[in-house]
Amino acid sequence: MRRCKTCHNRKCTCHKLNDASHHISNNQPPIKPVDLFGSPFNCKKQKKTPRFTSPNSPLSADELNELQACIEEVNDLLRSLGSESNPNNTRQLQLHFFNLRGEIVKAQILTTPVEDEGDTDEGEEEQERIDMDGSDCHGKILNKIGKLATAGRDFIQMNEVGSATFILYEHLLSVTRENKCEYDKAIVPEFHDASQEMRRELAFNFGEFVTKDTELLNLFFGIPLYLHLKKYLGKDVKVKVAEGCIFGTLIATNANKINLVNNTGEIEFSLKDIYYIEVINIK
How far apart are alpha carbons 278 and 260 in whole angstroms? Predict the structure, then answer.
C-alpha cells in the first residue's frame, strides 16, 4: 500500500489534521506538522523514484565518517601539491586553520631585520633572534599564545580573555598546538545547528544572504583582514610595529592601511608594517 506524499502515512490523515486545526488554539502546534522547509506554499508533486534502503558502506557510521575525513584531508594535500605555487592563493591555508579552531596554539611572528626593537612587551614570550637569508642582519620572533578563533584570506585570529589578536600570514612563521596530548576531535558540520530559516536562505537565496554576513562570507570565500576589522571600529586596540606598541581607538580600516586616534592625534599605519593588531578591553 502506498504512502501519502504529504503526511507520509499509509492511511492519509491530511484531512483530519486540517479539520482538527480549526479546534486547536493558536498557541498549540499541530499534531503532525508537515515540514515544507519554511515555505508557505505546498510542494509540487514528487515524481516516482526508486528508494534504496540498504547501507552504502559496510563500515559503521563512525568509521565511515573517520574514513571520509581522512580522504578529504589527503585530497586537500594533493590539491595543494598539484597546484602551482601562488602566494596570493591562501585559501588552502585558511581551510587548514579552520580545522584548528578552538585549539590553544602558539603563533611565531617573524619581524623584519632591525638593529634594535626594544624590550619584550607584556603578553609576549621571550623573543629569539634568527638569521635572515644568511645575511648579517637578524630578525626577531615574537611568540603569542591563545585560542585560535578563526582565519581569513590573509590573517588568523587568536583570542584571549578580554582581547583578540590578528596576525597577517606574511608575518606568520609557524603555528603549533600547545596541548601536546593527542585526542580524537569530533567533526561537526558547519551548519549542524542552523535554523530552518537559515538553511532555506542558504539554499534559495545564497548570494544575497551570504554577502550580508561577513562571517559567512569568510567561511565560504575568505575575506581580508581590513574587512574583518570593520566590526571593531570604535574599539581600543594595540598595534605592534617595529618602533614598539601604539595604543589608540580604531577609527578606519582600508585595503592597505588602518587609522587610529589617541591623545597625540590621528595615526595611520600600513598593514604590511604591522606585526599584529590586538583589540583590547573586549567585554
Answer: 13
